[in-house]
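The record is kept unedited without comment:

——
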Amino acid sequence: MADRVYKVLFLCTGNSARSILAEAILNHRGKGKFVGFSAGSHPKGAVNPYALALLQRMGMSTEGLRSKAWDEFAQPGAPPLDFVFTVCDNAAGEVCPVWPGQPMTAHWGQPDPAAVEGTDLDKTTAFRDGFRMLERRINLFTALPISSLDRLALSYKVREIGKSQ
């Protein structure tokens, strides 16, 4: 893959928390080299307010973030994707659309902070923990010498990133 701007889609079931966080983190950290998107197999229709509050506290843009179906990215005219990462176990097990251009895929599953019940502090902590894990993985990903790796080596590396805690 030549030096250029890489397009990355993060998938989850509801597209309200983890995939939204990943989209925002990649767009913040990878400016000029990466563009992040997110979608869900069964989108909730709204972004989780804890996700939005955390992103704002971290100084990241929430502009344009919305819960949407993954079908948008399999349609003619959709941005050509280079990478597709699932961030929840449900989406990893579902039959995904056929992505034009055969992007590289990997599973980066992690616990769902939106599923945490309890106090506001419990929920805020779960979102912060999820954010940190995604940020660590995205930092590892954006540091890869993508243009100098062959497809097999790159595939191995992005899959290994999904195993990092």
The longest strand covers residues 6-12. Strands lie at 6-12, 34-40, 83-86, 104-107. The chain has one domain: 6-159.
